[in-house]
Design a protein that fits this description.
Blueprint lengths: L1 E11 L7 H8 L4 E11 L8 E5 L6 H8 L3 H11 L3 E5 L5 H10 L3 E5 L2 H8 L4 H16 L2 E4 L2 H9 L7 E3 L22 E5 L8 H13 L5 E5 L5 H10 L3 E5 L3 H10 L2 E4 L13 H8 L4 E4 L14 E4 L4 H12 L3 H18 L2 H16 L1
Helix pairs in contact: 1-14, 3-4, 5-6, 5-7, 8-12, 11-13
Length: about 375
């Protein structure tokens, strides 16, 4: 099978999820794949497939190229047509015009994965120019896509409510690379327990809720270090908390190797993601990455995040915006006896490998491809 993986704006890192399944299929030796973006910014030379950008990476800054991408549907379509794929797989229902046109002209199946913001955009029906631009793409996807894949049961339900066709709408968990995200040696664990956060320092990710819970835990004598990885609009508030409370450490952004090192060292990973306007977490793959490293995860029961842990088995999903319950869940993991701690770590890893790995996700995706082309 020859697969054209398509999207609007592609930046790697961090959006490896756009290409990772195709890379796995190419590595098997049984399939071909190439990625086609309207504009791209690829800074990982180890990427396993070629990326064709309709707007050359030499044409100015990323912002300039992203603006040019609005008018780049036609060159993207021509590049896809020249590749002559068996199937076109578009990531996000937005920016899809060029890929849809190519699939239509080639008379091949068109599969779309919706990731969250595209579904929320479909629901919002904004009258602003950018909203109308995205809406026109979303409307075509709902009419023309052979299959639409949602990254969680939560998102599948929201997509159906937003008008995506129920008979062509399926849940497909993305999975994480359990060959890369692996447990370290027991000596990798820090002497002082680490509570780890990795994500955007934005209201929707709940980092200030975690800071509040951590300060309360520290005040009642639970020794730990809160390590916060990321950047965003709440960085100054997080830095101020770190200046006042010496158990809080802010690293800023790290590459995936640095993130993995911290996931291996942490006792518990926390992502108190929460509703922000119409937005909810569609999945939360970072929760799976932590568990693949053998680190239990705590999150809010918000959007699709709760589907990324096995509650009270590999972590906890607690009531949204309840910082007391958030702190209690973290404390439960921190105070596990050593034998139970080992059990939880092993169970977290085993669950992700069996149910949420990139390998199993790629096998399921191939089933969708075969159904679409059959």
């Amino acid at each position: 099978m020859r697969i054209a993986v398509t999207t609007g704006l592609l930046r790697i890192p961090p959006t490896y999820f756009v290409t990772q399944h195709a890379e796995r299929l190419v590595a098997s030796g049984d399939h071909e794949a190439r990625a086609f973006a309207r504009a791209s910014d690829v800074r990982d030379a180890r990427l396993g497939i070629d990326v064709v950008s309709a707007v050359s990476e030499a044409r100015g800054s990323w912002r300039t190229r992203a603006l040019r991408a609005v008018a780049a549907a036609r060159p993207q379509r021509r590049a896809i047509e020249a590749y002559e794929p068996t199937l076109v797989h578009q990531h996000f229902a937005t920016w899809a015009h060029g890929a849809l046109d190519a699939a239509q002209r080639l008379d091949v199946p068109f599969v779309t994965t919706v990731h969250g913001y595209d579904v929320f955009a479909a629901d919002a029906r904004s009258a602003a120019p950018v909203g109308r631009f995205h809406r026109s793409s979303i409307d075509r996807v709902t009419r023309e896509a052979t299959r639409v894949l949602a990254v969680s049961d939560f998102l599948r339900g929201r997509a159906e409510q937003a008008g995506f066709p129920a008979d062509r709408l399926f849940r497909h968990y993305q999975g994480v690379d359990t060959d890369f995200f692996t447990p370290g040696d027991e000596t990798d664990r820090a002497d002082e327990p680490i509570v780890l956060f990795v994500g955007a320092l934005e209201p929707r990710k709940g980092v200030l809720d975690l800071v509040t819970a951590s300060i309360a835990l520290s005040a009642r004598g639970r020794a730990h270090r809160l390590v916060i990885v990321g950047d965003g609009s709440q960085r100054a508030l997080v830095d101020a908390a770190a200046a006042e409370h010496d158990h809080i450490v802010v690293t800023g952004p790290l590459d995936r190797h640095g993130v993995r090192d911290l996931m291996r060292a942490a006792e518990v990973f926390a992502l108190p993601t929460q509703r922000d306007g119409s937005w909810r977490e569609a999945a939360g793959l970072v929760l799976l990455e932590a568990q693949a490293c053998g680190t239990p995860a705590v999150t809010y029961d918000s959007g699709g995040a709760a589907e990324m842990v096995r509650d009270a088995s590999t972590g906890f999903a607690v009531a949204e915006r309840d910082t007391t319950r958030l702190g209690d869940a973290i404390d439960t993991v921190l105070t596990l006896p050593s034998d139970e701690r080992r059990t939880w770590r092993a169970r977290a890893r085993e669950w992700v490998v069996s149910d949420r790995s990139l390998a199993s996700s790629t096998a399921h995706l191939l089933d969708h491809y075969r159904a679409a082309t059959g």
